[in-house]
Amino acid sequence: MLIRHTAFVPAYKPPAEKDFETIRYFVSRHKKILILTGAGISTESGIPDYRSEEVGLYARSNHKPVQYQEFVKYPKVRQRYWARNFIGWPRFSAVQPNATHYAIRELEKINKVSAIVTQNVDRLHHKAGSENIIELHGTGYIVKCLQCSYEVDRYELQQTMMQQNPDMENSVTMIRPDGDVELSREQIEKFRVPLCPNCQGPLKPDIVFFGDNVPKERVEKVRNEVSESDAIFVLGSSLTVYSSYRIILQAKEEKKEVAILNIGPTRADNIVDIKISTKCSDILMDLRNTI
């Protein structure tokens, strides 16, 4: 039997008792687990992922995420991005953590988690109270200038954009993983793009766009956390992008046990120790009380 939980959670089979016992035993025998999370854990909060069959953004629309080089090179690309992001921000920033985020926090409280490495830019781990978080692909909550050291909180920038675009029609239709929405060409073309107040340079969210690289110091920090851990627990990630997949490669090189809990296949299914395909919260919600 397949279950569809919300509009953005892919169809999945409910976990069997043996699935729960497998994860329970995995967590119970490790003391320093690095948890790697992807877009699949935020779908229950109402943020769609990119790749899930039928419900991911690639399946639901023709949307392709903005490319780093295009954003840097073309003012029109930046205008389109910021216009949509401006409209989508109130809803995106209001999204709340779900049972999986809180379950991870509970595992932290009993000293099972050494670090959380997340591919998500939504800060839901922060909202749930988690602490040692590495945002692998950055965050949508900070905006930086591409030409100088200026940076600004995304909430503050929203106020600036509201002042510059008082007549912008609020027409949210569908939120996206990176927080933007669809707008008409006319709406986009009349949008006034925010610029750096110090140098008038272009502003970009502190997100690693497609085609860009994760900063070297962040890569090194993740490598160190993997080495310091005694196991890796992947939640809600297909591990399609190399920045996450190489974490698994390193863990296996260091002979660490790796478990994956994700609806659907992942890039690392054939090299990990445990793979269970079901909704994360169905397994995690009752985990703490049994360890």
UniProtKB/TrEMBL annotation:
PANTHER family cross-referenced by the UniProt entry: NAD-DEPENDENT PROTEIN DEACYLASE SIRTUIN-5, MITOCHONDRIAL-RELATED
Organism listed in the record: Papilio xuthus
Name of the featured protein: NAD-dependent protein deacylase
EC number: 2.3.1.-
Residues that coordinate or bind Zn(2+): C145, C148, C196, C199
UniProt-annotated binding residues for NAD(+): 38-58, 119-122, 236-238, 262-264, 280
UniProt xrefs under SUPFAM superfamilies: DHS-like NAD/FAD-binding domain
Entry's Gene Ontology molecular function annotations: histone deacetylase activity, NAD-dependent; NAD+ binding; zinc ion binding
Family that this chain belongs to: Belongs to the sirtuin family. Class II subfamily.
Keyword Flavoprotein recorded: no
Domain named Deacetylase sirtuin-type: residues: 13-291
